[in-house]
Write a structure and sequence with these properties.
This protein is mainly α and 312 residues long. 68% of the residues lie in helices and 1% in strands. The chain is rod-shaped.
């Protein structure tokens, strides 16, 4: 190609694959100004203008706006700088599109109404900070101002929902359900009662922690009773209750007597809201953690069995 050759707008259009109208627009905009004019007044362009036009076309294909392209061509900002900024903007758009896709798939899967879809979209597009703020507000409102079990409060504050950039429909579903649960006045009141109970117990000297070992004992012993078809009011349930109440009495430093059984029943009834377990299951789905097994059946059995043997 002759470096001294001059090209008309039609020549540029043919060489770049752009339309004459587009080349003329870039020329009129000053992005690819003419190098010279023919005796008849037609615009002419040299090889540098052709290269400039190729660069403009590439940058436009990548989504850069004309203002940014003009800055690159005028060397007001470097091409790497504008590329990095644009890549970041594209990343945001990609995350948004992935989230929209997940919402639409979730809607298609669950057969949502338009109102439900609108709610899902609003909740799903919250930023990470906004999602954390919603959950922190729930924790502050339910545990705030109370000396509740510090281990539980610390665990709740450390477990924040982290919806991935490309969530699965079930993760969107789980986040929407968790957000609704955290804002449910009845659930908040239930958790507040639990926190108040814990604070009252601590005020009376209870400094024990989360008691995973007691949870494991209930799961194992009651689980065996359930598997064997033992009903909570059945005489066959008595040895299970006797063993478990003795274990609770030992851990909490209480006598193994009817008062302790009444105390234990109150404690279990206060904490035995299946929505609390659901809260942790939803967090696990959102964050891609292993979903904890449901202990609701074993604790329901435990509560019913105690209730059948406790005189109020």
């Amino acid at each position: 190609m002759d470096g001294d050759a001059l090209y008309s707008i039609g020549d540029l259009a043919r060489r770049t694959g752009l339309t004459v109208k587009t080349v003329r627009f870039y020329s009129d905009s000053g992005i690819v100004p003419p190098t010279d004019r023919s005796p008849a007044g037609y615009r002419l362009y040299d090889i540098d203008a052709l290269a400039r036009l190729d660069l403009v076309r590439t940058l436009r294909d990548l989504g850069l706006d004309l203002a940014a392209i003009q800055q690159v061509l005028d060397r007001e900002i470097s091409l790497p700088e504008v590329a990095a900024a644009h890549a970041e903007a594209l990343e945001v758009q990609i995350r948004t599109l992935r989230l929209r896709r997940a919402v639409l798939r979730a809607v298609a899967k669950r057969g949502s109404t338009p109102e439900e879809m609108d709610l899902m979209h609003k909740l799903a597009k919250l930023s990470d900070d906004e999602r954390r703020r919603l959950i922190r507000n729930f924790i502050d409102d339910t545990f705030g101002g109370l000396d509740a079990n510090p281990g539980l409060v610390a665990m709740m504050r450390s477990a924040m929902p982290e919806l991935p950039d490309d969530p699965a429909p079930e993760q969107v579903d789980a986040w929407v359900e968790l957000a609704e649960l955290a804002q449910d006045p009845d659930f908040r009141a239930s958790v507040r009662r639990m926190a108040e109970y814990q604070a009252a117990e601590r005020a009376q000297g209870d400094t024990t922690g989360l008691h995973q070992e007691l949870t494991d004992a209930v799961r194992d012993q009651v689980g065996q009773a359930l598997a064997a078809g033992v009903g909570p009011a059945s005489p066959r349930a008595t040895p299970v209750i006797t063993a478990l109440t003795a274990r609770y009495a030992h851990v909490f430093g209480r006598p193994d007597d009817p008062d302790t059984r009444r105390w234990l029943l109150t404690r279990l009834e206060t904490a035995n809201d299946p929505r609390a377990e659901r809260y942790w299951q939803l967090l696990a789905v959102i964050n891609g953690w292993p979903v904890p097994e449901s202990l609701a059946p074993v604790f329901d059995w435990f509560v019913q069995a105690l209730r059948a043997r406790v005189e109020r």
